[in-house]
Automatic annotation (TrEMBL):
Organism: Panicum virgatum (Blackwell switchgrass)
Coiled-coil annotated residue ranges, if any: none
Protein name in the entry: Succinate-semialdehyde dehydrogenase, mitochondrial
InterPro entries, per the entry: Ald_DH/histidinol_DH (IPR016161), Ald_DH_C (IPR016163), Ald_DH_CS_CYS (IPR016160), Ald_DH_CS_GLU (IPR029510), Ald_DH_N (IPR016162), Aldehyde_DH_dom (IPR015590), Aldehyde_DH_Superfamily (IPR050740)
Keyword Oxidoreductase recorded: yes
GO molecular function, one term: succinate-semialdehyde dehydrogenase (NAD+) activity
Active site: 295
Enzyme class: oxidoreductase
Keywords, alphabetical: Oxidoreductase
PANTHER family in the cross-refs: SUCCINATE-SEMIALDEHYDE DEHYDROGENASE, MITOCHONDRIAL
GO biological process terms held by the UniProt record: gamma-aminobutyric acid catabolic process
Family affiliation: Belongs to the aldehyde dehydrogenase family.
Residue ranges constituting the Aldehyde dehydrogenase domain according to the UniProt record: 59-391
Annotated Pfam families: Aldedh (PF00171)
Length: 408
């Protein structure tokens, strides 16, 4: 094993020797705008295009009337203008969640379970509209978006059942005249801060267990992908989740975050995102001694040894690196390939990458959607420039759409 590790060649996504560059531009985009328009109409017809925040069961504008644009990263088109909320709206959402906590937590586990199961059923019934909305605002291919809807809904299905199984414990006492019992109770209001790369699943994965055990929630979705969160919240109301049990505020991230951290009524912070922000949230939670649940950025290698099956290794590496256009916390940051298999693997991997089709996620042929925004594009360009300044490169081509406004 030690000898094998000594012969590994290090390549960041094969970046030490292979960098992907755009050499040909195909896929006309004119009809894609029409597709996007038709998708938006389908979403509107289903009643799932919400642009206001959700506080105490009411859809409300930002108190100062400010809005932010939600753009389609594939085209740069503005999909909607949503309320840009801040500390005041967040404080009201927290107060609503705290007030509702006392009634929601008193319901039986079976009653909460039924509401969560209904929410699951409604998400599955509207999975096509939710997937379209996700592709429009986040960019991932429609097949991936449909997969996320099913994945996200599965958390609600699971925790709808687990709601009925929040058991206590009986502990053997140390004294004969004592009985030791453990009763599990909800902590209170949960502040959930979610990322843009999985705009539905990261919400259901946090909100599902919180509601199941009797907590209430204030969700702050990413300002880049708030529409999916708002649509999911609308379905939660339809499912019978009571007003105030689930609140959604979006917009000014620092203000919203500070309001959640400073509130003594918020008892838990759950966050998925960067390590830097996670550290700030952990530090900010100390003053009010909140529970903290963090899922932070990864730094994952993909390792291929000489005895690997080439086809399996290429397929696995491709999925590890290119899922969601490389925008997940578990995407491979580098690929380490053992000397004896390197050339065969590199050749097969390059061929597989060349078959990927970059474009608008609404197109059936697209396997790689755009990056989320211009900052993400610049970050990747910085990595490429850094690599090209330091190492020998063999460039290969991929197909990109002829769209200067998209985040490609």
């Amino acid at each position: 094993m030690a000898k094998a590790m000594m012969t590994l060649r290090r390549a960041a996504a094969l970046g030490a020797r292979h960098i992907l560059t755009a050499s040909s531009r195909v896929v006309p985009l004119r009809h894609m705008s029409a597709d996007a328009g038709a998708a938006m109409e389908k979403i509107r017809a289903a009643g799932l295009l919400r642009t206001q925040g959700l506080i105490a069961g009411q859809w409300v504008d930002a108190y100062d009337g400010k809005t932010i644009e939600v753009q389609n990263p594939a085209t740069g088109d503005v999909l909607a203008n949503v309320s840009c909320m801040g500390s005041r709206e967040t404080s009201d959402a927290i107060a609503s969640a705290n007030s509702t906590f006392y009634s929601w937590s008193k319901l039986t586990a079976n009653e909460r379970s039924k509401a969560l199961r209904k929410w699951y059923d409604l998400i599955i019934a509207h999975k096509e509209e939710l997937a379209l909305l996700m592709t429009l605002e986040q960019g991932k291919p429609l097949k991936e978006a449909l997969g996320e809807v099913n994945y996200g809904a599965s958390f609600l299905e699971y925790f709808a059942e687990e709601a009925k199984r929040i058991y206590g414990d009986i502990i053997p006492p140390t004294l004969s005249d004592r009985r030791l019992l453990v009763l599990k109770q909800p902590v209170g209001v949960v502040g959930a801060i979610t990322p843009w790369n999985f705009p539905l699943a990261m919400i259901t994965r946090k909100v599902g267990p919180a509601l199941a055990c009797g907590c209430t929630v204030v969700v702050k979705p990413s300002e880049f992908t708030p529409l999916t969160a708002l649509a999911a919240a609308d379905l939660a109301l339809q499912a019978g989740i009571p007003a105030g049990a689930l609140n959604v505020v979006m917009g000014n991230a620092p203000e919203i975050g500070d309001a959640l951290l400073q509130s003594t009524q918020v008892r838990t912070i759950t966050f998925t995102g960067s390590t830097a922000v996670g550290k700030k949230l952990m530090a900010g939670s100390a003053n009010t001694v909140k529970k903290v649940s963090l899922e932070l950025g990864g730094n994952a290698p993909c390792i291929v040894f000489d005895d690997a099956d080439i086809d399996v290794a290429v397929k696995g590496s491709l999925a590890a690196k290119f899922r969601n256009s490389g925008q997940t916390c578990v995407c491979a940051n580098r690929i380490l390939v053992q000397e004896g298999i390197y050339e065969k693997f590199a050749s097969a991997f390059i061929k597989a990458v060349q078959s990927l089709h970059v474009g608008n996620g609404l197109e059936e042929s697209t396997s790689q959607g755009p990056l989320i925004n211009e900052a993400a594009v610049q970050k990747v360009e910085k990595f490429i420039n850094d690599a090209t300044s330091k190492v020998f490169l063999i460039t290969i081509s991929m197909h990109f759409p002829p769209n200067p406004e998209g985040m490609y």
